[in-house]
Structures are given as structure tokens and as C-alpha cells.
Amino acid sequence: MAKGKKVTVIGTGNFGSTVAFILAMNGSCHHVMLRGRNYDIAKGKALDMSQAANAARQHTIVKAAKGPEDMEGSDVVIITAGAPRTPGMSRDDLLFKNADIVKCYAREIKEYAPDAIVIVVSNPLDVMTYVALKETGFPRQRVLGMAGILDAARMAHFIYEKLEYGAGQIRATVMGGHGDTMVPLPKFTTVAGVPIEDLLDSEEIGEIVRKTRNGGAEIVNLLGNGSAYYAPAKSTTVMVEAILKDTNQIHSCAIMLKNDYGYSDIVSGVPVMIGAGGAEKVINMALKPLQQTRFKNSVASVQEMVDTLYKANFFDDDKK
Ligand SMILES: NC(=O)C1=CN([C@@H]2O[C@H](COP(=O)(O)OP(=O)(O)OC[C@H]3O[C@@H](n4cnc5c(N)ncnc54)[C@H](O)[C@@H]3O)[C@@H](O)[C@H]2O)C=CC1
Ligand SMILES: O=C([O-])CC(=O)C(=O)O
Q1: Domains in the chain: how many in total?
Q2: Which positions fall inside the Lactate/malate dehydrogenase C-terminal domain (predicted)?
Q3: Among the atoms of ligand 2, which is closest to the Cα of residue 123?
Q4: Could you give the 3-state DSSP secondary structure of residue 280?
């Protein structure tokens, strides 16, 4: 492989294609490797994106992987392979189907890209991140799940809808799992530095919190045959660029907790500092009792699904 930063995107569906396209349009890295189930489709998309990069005067080259060995030398590998939900489903309904897919690709990454930082996006996100961590055996800093940036972007959008000003200046914070129990944090949310509690009343904030939790489902219901991918893909590239540029910026990401917020050996979304080594530091915020209770419930819902996998002997016995 020629020199330069390399990102492999596993899965060439809506999410994977959009992530690869944004990376190519931004010139975020030198090489994007698309690994899909169907080589011709991956190759067709790779050619199209490489040509788009030329039109955009960017240097990024997108290629299709013939096999897992083409992941070699990846700095970052993004796992997007997996079924999306359709109307009426929760993300959790994808548990067994997507766990098998993520397990298979995590094993390939372990073999062919042992130094990569892995970003998981397949749902249910926190459990899939747990599966990828256990199956690669990588340190927790190098296996992250993308959700918090997306959920915060949604919250920011719903705040804008209410205020009708401040778009692009709203900094929202969402912690916890990427599911119905996610924990939007109005107390840590500002518009150009102004706390939203100074701008909106508690009823309006409550509505924003509910809309944020339902943000994915709202789009699933509108699309009818899949889920959101523009905001999810953009949010993922924020993480990729933080890693490749070693920005040391703070984003909410899913990570294996290790005495963080009082929990260990379970994945949840918390603020982390992202740099060249992945999640180089977990930021522990002082949560109020109600926020702690909501975070606890969110952690418990992820734990329940992890336990379901263990009960089904999904993991090799020695992996817990
Ligand atoms: N973390 C987050 O915030 C978000 C997560 N997602 C999740 O991302 C995943 C992908 O979503 P989309 O790209 O929109 O779906 P899609 O249906 O457009 O693409 C799915 C991709 O997974 C591959 N795939 C499906 N079954 C496979 C199997 N058995 N083996 C290997 N590859 C397989 C397909 O070939 C395709 O490339 C879903 O699980 C979805 O729920 C989606 C949006 C946001
Ligand atoms: O809602 C879904 O199933 C996809 C997803 O995670 C999101 O858009 O937040």
C-alpha cells in the first residue's frame, strides 16, 4: 500500500457509501478502502467516488477491497455492515443478526488491521461496540462506537427549530446508550455559550429531549425502508478526522467503561478526548442525581442485551 492515511469502510450500503463519500470530498485521508459483500458494487462506488474526488480537486483515492487482506495498513476501520431497522422495529431487534456480522468483521480486523482504530456504527450500537471490542481483543481506546455526536446534532437541530436562531452555534450533549434510554443533557447544552435553560422553559426543553430520543425512529418512519445516513455519516467522519489529525477534541462516543461514572465492563456513551491513539481520555462530568439515574437505566438496558448474548453462548467462554 502506498504511503498516507488509510480508512477502510466495511459495508457499502447507505451509511458506508455516504461515510466514504464525505471522506473523499473532504480529502480526509489518502486512501479509502470499501469492503462490501459484492465486489462489483464496491468497485463501481469506489470509481464513482474517486472521480468525484478529482472533480473536487481532492487527493483521496477510493478503492474496492477484493478480500480482507486489503484492509492491511488501515489507520481506521469503520464497521457499517448490518441490517438497518424498518418502521415498527427498535434498534435492539437487530441484536442477533448484526452481532454475527460484526463478530465476523471484527475477527478480520484483528487479523488484517491489528493496529487500526475501529469505529462501530452498526446497531444496536453499544452492544455492537462491545462485540467488536471482545472479538478484536483491542484495548478499549481503539474500539469506539459512533452515536453521541449524532444524537447531539439532532438535539441541536430540535433546539434550533424551537428558537429559530443560533443554527451552528448550539452545543448539545447526549450521553448513555444509543437507544430509547439515551440521556440528553440540557444542563450541559448552550447556544453561543448561553445555557438553554435561560432561553427555553422546562416544557419546551422536555419536548426537545423527547424528540432527540425519537430522532432515529422519526426518520425510519418517514423513509419506510431504512434509517438515516447523512447525519450519521457526517458524525462518523468527525471522529475519523479527530483521529487522523490528532485533534484531542472532546466528543461523546461509546466506549467500554472502566471505573467511569461508576461502571466497568459495559459500553456506553460518554465524553472522550479523541486523538491519534483513539479515545485517549474519558472525561468524567459531575452528574446530578436525576442524570445519574437516567444514565444507570441506559447502562442497564445495554447490559441486558449483552447478557442475552452471553446466555446464547455468542461469545467464547473465556471472553468475558
Ligand atoms: N450508530 C448510529 O448512529 C447509526 C447506525 N446505523 C446502523 O448502521 C447499519 C447500516 O445502515 P445502512 O448502511 O443504512 O443500511 P443498508 O441496508 O443501506 O446497508 C447495510 C450494509 O450492510 C451489509 N450487510 C447486510 N447484511 C450483511 C451480512 N450478513 N454480511 C455482510 N454484510 C452485510 C450490506 O451488504 C450493506 O452493505 C445499520 O445497522 C443501522 O442500524 C444507522 C444510522 C445511525
Ligand atoms: O434509528 C436507526 O435505526 C438508525 C440510527 O441509529 C439513527 O438514525 O439514530
Answers
A1: 2
A2: 150-307
A3: 6
A4: strand
